[in-house]
Specification:
mainly alpha, binds fe (ii) ion, Hemerythrin-like, globular, Cation-binding protein, single chain
Length: about 180
């Protein structure tokens, strides 16, 4: 990753806390992305890395275990994956903008913020609350370590590069998670 923006590098902790810390980072980065006082190109790259790494780690290690160990349903987990795909699609539109000082960029950022804020809210209500209420500390610590390890590995692999985001969007379309449309 070339970005100088610090994405943190947790290696252990309660999975709910680790996920919420990333959600705070998403909100901060979205605010910076809206501001012309920021290095918006650096911010979009940092946001891309964090979004892909976080969502992949949730889908690989957190959602599957919570379906078994808590009242999180298969539908809620699948809906989360659908919203990750929508987030990647909105992210791709931001990354594809040639410049960061255009109306097109502002519109793409507005859509990204809408999609991601919706997902953070829904995930905290339907996935993190049951995770906190239904599971024990030990499982949440195990999931925290698995989540953090995958998240950091993804960031080290430069997971936010545009080719990788495009690959994930195309894969989601093939799997029917988002419309083939645009
Ligand atoms: Fe999340
Ligand atoms: Fe998520």
């Amino acid at each position: 990753m070339d970005s100088a923006i610090d994405l943190g590098r947790p290696t252990s902790g309660d999975v709910v806390d680790l996920i919420l810390e990333d959600h705070d980072r998403f909100e901060r980065l979205l605010r910076q992305l809206r501001s012309t006082a920021s290095d918006r190109d650096a911010v979009r790259q940092a946001f891309a890395a964090l979004h892909v790494a976080h969502a992949e780690a949730e889908e690989k290690h957190v959602y599957p275990r919570l379906k078994k160990a808590s009242s999180v349903t298969k539908d809620e987990a699948e809906h989360g994956e659908h919203e990750h795909a929508e987030g990647n699609e909105a992210l791709l539109a931001v990354l594809e903008c040639a410049g960061t000082d255009t109306q097109k960029f502002d519109d793409a950022v507005e859509e990204l913020a809408r999609v991601v804020n919706h997902h953070l809210t829904e995930e905290e209500l339907t996935i993190l609350n049951p995770a906190r209420e239904d599971t024990g500390e030990q499982l949440r610590a195990e999931l925290g370590e698995a989540f953090a390890t995958e998240r950091n590995r993804q960031i080290d692999d430069d997971c936010g590069r545009i080719e990788n985001v495009r690959r994930l969007v195309n894969k989601a379309k093939r799997h029917g998670l988002i419309d083939e449309g645009e």
